[in-house]
Automatic annotation (TrEMBL):
Top-level taxonomic group: Bacteria
Protein name per UniProt: GDP-L-fucose synthase
Signal peptide (residue range): none
E.C. number(s) listed in UniProt: 1.1.1.271
Domain NAD-dependent epimerase/dehydratase: 10-239
Protein's gene: fcl
Keywords annotated in UniProt: Isomerase, Multifunctional enzyme, NADP, Oxidoreductase
UniProt-recorded Gene Ontology molecular function terms: GDP-L-fucose synthase activity
Residues that bind substrate: K189, W204, R211, D271
Family: Belongs to the NAD(P)-dependent epimerase/dehydratase family. Fucose synthase subfamily.
Active-site residue list: Y138
Length: 319
């Protein structure tokens, strides 16, 4: 067990959706949280990272900094997705070893698994088949992050671990028209439909694919749990273990926001893989389970979206 009491925990990427949720969650622990702005430390620069770690001497690091984006962003900026992610994780993991950081938790994502991995996806599916080509750049960098943690554990005995979360949502999500994921995109569209009295909301694809969604506050709780209780080479999936169809998801958003119109599903747009669900048995076996049900999580996210919109805080709201 890694005791957080009195420890200095650096949350890398603290302004992001995951990083800010981790900072909120760590506020309940008796530890000091360290953060640094990108303008002071660009994580792509090794000397910046080494100096920061050497000066601040964190006891633990949660590595939630990454270049993140949807299919379009990945497809049009492949060099940035592979370079930024490889270099950020390499710089931090290497500097953490050099400074003797006691624990490091690296964050990947479910896109590390093969495109046609059997569902639900177990941790063992890693590197058993070809990746989804559109985000292979990002996925390869994330797989390298898992391998870095394993290699530093094997060669130097570092307690570096990896978590692979499913699709996330919650406060701080990206609601941009061009680069958001399905759930924030639905929240935005339905919210605007109610505001403008629209009778139809268009949704890409048939509505039949099934996806899993984890609230980011649940993820933050899982990460703190893993920091404390998990030490091993194997990466661990983090999810709810349940999925919904996109049509059911849209209806839940409509019910929460009070939209009474209809959805039109544009079947000419690609559906992607029919089902994407994590097997979360290993983490459950250690004693952690997601707590927030989807409807409550969506209602809480819609409240955050309305408030942030009024305060001009929604990311890329103008796009
Ligand atoms: N969002 C999801 O659905 C999802 C699902 C599974 C896994 N994950 C994983 O969770 C992690 C965090 O994702 P997120 O959704 O929280 O992403 P995010 O909201 O885009 O946050 C990423 C953070 O990384 C920071 N960052 C990026 N490049 C940097 C650089 N060169 N120097 C310093 N800071 C830099 C950003 O700083 P600025 O604020 O300054 O830009 C931001 O704070 C990622 O590893 C991702 O793979 C996310």
């Amino acid at each position: 067990m890694f005791d957080l009491h009195g420890r200095r925990v650096w949350v890398a990427g603290h302004r992001g959706m995951v990083g800010s949720a981790v900072v909120r969650r760590l506020a309940r622990e008796r530890c000091s949280v360290l953060t640094v702005e990108r303008s002071a430390v660009d994580l792509r620069r090794q000397s910046d990272v080494e100096t920061w770690i050497a000066e601040t001497r964190p006891d633990a690091i949660i590595l939630a900094a990454a270049k993140v984006g949807g299919i379009h962003a990945n497809d049009t900026h492949p060099a940035e997705f592979i370079y930024d992610n490889l270099v950020i994780e390499t710089n931090i993991i290497h500097a953490a070893w050099r400074s003797g950081v006691g624990k490091l938790l690296f964050l990947g994502s479910s896109c590390i698994y093969p495109k046609f991995a059997p569902q639900p996806m177990t941790e063992d599916a890693l590197l058993t088949g070809p990746l989804e080509p559109t985000n292979q750049w990002y996925a390869i960098a994330k797989i390298a992050g898992i391998k870095l943690c394993q290699a530093y554990r094997r060669q130097y005995g570092c307690d570096f671990i990896s978590a692979m979360p499913t699709n996330l949502y919650g406060p701080g999500d990206n609601f941009s028209r061009t680069s958001s994921h399905v759930l924030p995109a639905l929240i935005r569209k339905v919210h605007e439909a109610v505001e403008h009295g629209q009778e139809t909301v268009e949704v890409w694809g048939t509505g039949r694919p099934r996806r899993e969604f984890l609230h980011v506050d649940d993820l933050a709780d899982a990460l703190v749990f893993m920091l404390r209780h998990y030490s091993g080479e194997e990466h661990l999936n983090v999810g709810t273990g349940t999925d919904v169809s996109i049509a059911e998801l849209a209806q839940t958003v409509a019910d929460v926001i009070g939209y009474r119109g209809r959805f039109s599903f544009d079947a000419s747009m690609p559906d992607g893989t029919p089902r994407k669900l994590m097997d979360v048995g290993r983490l459950a076996g250690l004693g952690w389970r997601a707590r927030m049900d989807l409807r409550t999580g969506i209602a809480q996210t819609c409240d955050w979206y309305r408030t942030a919109l009024n305060q001009g805080l929604v990311r890329a709201a103008a796009e």
